[in-house]
Amino acid sequence: MIPHSRPSIEADEIRAVVDVLRSRQLAQGALVEQFERGMAAYFGLPGGVAVTSGTAALEVALRTLGIGPGDEVVLPSYVCAAPLLAIQRVGAMPRLVDIDLDTFNMDSSAAQRALTSKTKALIVPHLFGLPADLTELERLGVPIIEDCAQTLGAMERGRSVGSVGLLTVCSFYATKLLCAGEGGMVLSRDESLLERARRLREYDETPSLRPWATNFKMTDLQAALGVAQLNRLASFLDRRKWLAQEYRAAVNSSALVQPIVPADRTHAYYRFVVRLPNPSKGPDGLHDLIARFEARGIQCRKPVFRSLHRYLELEGFPSSEEAERTAMSIPLYPSLTEEEEAQIHVALRSEWP
Ligand SMILES: Cc1ncc(COP(=O)(O)O)c(C=O)c1O
Asked: What is the pLDDT of residues 60-84, one digit of tens each?
């Protein structure tokens, strides 16, 4: 079975991790700092604060902005649970908004309607590798936390994702564009916010006990992996783009809706997500399609497990629901072998509804 995701680990990564083991300096140290500097340079920002996961990075970002009980944070409904959980952990109120079905990203007019006098931030995920409409979202005049867990290196109106928001968060989970096994980072152009985030990462050696504090620190083992992956990130992204072009050519004549890339943006293809053209066929149509690929040895997935409004038992999110009923993610990652790629191509040409 071709797995839906698989990290690209080669000699450089293995050597880097073994070197850390040999050094006996395993916990947060010089390599974490090197990884922070490398990621910050990648985004053109002055610094970053490495933490244990993308979820932790979201929580640290919210606490860095002083967001807590009585505050509201706007986020899209069609995304993994991490942003919602981070908002709930700091005691703030999540304000879910629907997505733009074409891009799977937050609908900026829905975000505008969700603003109140209590809104303190927008969490803006760039889903599946495609930047959200940052320009329209910036016009709302609310601090933006860019969630780059799924997107690196993509552009919106000539600006790189991660360089626009007041804070940016990353995830380095095993199957992300750049992996460290687990891990996350908070980045900013504002040095005072970085300093605050750095202090929030620590649970010990603080003047007073903070009941919510926990261990958010990354290890040098993870950072070594992250640094090695960062050195290969450009080639990873090139390979993803090339694969996406090949997939597009293969499914061109099918009825499936291919990933849409607005003229003002580029796509990093963290996921290659197609949609069933006829929502009335889902969810059975979607399950059927996933099963047909599985029968050919290709593991496809619903790219978002469950829209967040369904956890909160809210109504009025038609685009999130349609995405949930009709979207399917096809394996696309740099470590695909030529044989696997050929197998996927054959399936793409023959399996569509
Ligand atoms: C958009 C988004 N934000 C945040 C996260 C959380 O990252 P992590 O799994 O590193 O906690 C994920 C993880 O999948 C994600 O996709």
From this structure: 999 999 999 999 999 999 999 999 9
Instruction: Tell me how far apart the alpha carbons of residues 348 and 324 are, in angstroms, rounded to a whole number.
Output: 21
Whether ligand 1 lies within 6 angstroms of the CB of 107 is answered as: no
For ligand 1, the distance from its centroid to the CA atom of residue 172, given in whole angstroms, is: 8
Task: Verify whether ligand 1 is closer than 6 Å to residue 171 (CB atom).
Answer: yes
Task: Say how many Å lie between the CA of residue 303 and the centre of ligand 1.
Answer: 12
Residue 279 pLDDT more than 90?
no
Residue from 326, 332, 328 nearest 345 by CA:
332
What does pTM read for this prediction?
0.97
| Tokens describing residue 201 | 């990462």
Residue 187 Cα to ligand 1 middle (Å): 15
Cβ–ligand 1 contact at 222 (below 6 Å)? no
Tell me phi and psi for residue 336, to 5 degrees: -60, 135
Task: Tell me if 52 CB under 6 Å of ligand 1.
Answer: no
Domains and CATH numbers, the chain: 11-229 (3.40.640.10), 233-350 (3.90.1150.10)
CA-proximal residue: ligand 1, atom 15 (nearest): 149
Please tell me the residue having the least CA distance from ligand 1 atom 3.
149
At 231, is the pLDDT very low, low, confident or very high (cuts 50, 70, 90)? very high
State in Å: Cα 21 to ligand 1 middle. 27
Could you tell me the two tokens for 306? 């469950």
Residue 153 backbone class (left: φ over 0; alpha: ψ -120 to 50; beta: rest): left
pLDDT at position 282: 62
Is 125 touching ligand 1 by the criterion CB < 6 Å? Answer: yes
d(CA 54, CA 58): 6
The span from the CA of 153 to the CA of 165, in Å, is: 15
- Read off the pLDDT of residues 78-115 as tens digits, 9 standing for 90 and up: 999 999 999 999 999 999 999 999 999 999 999 999 99
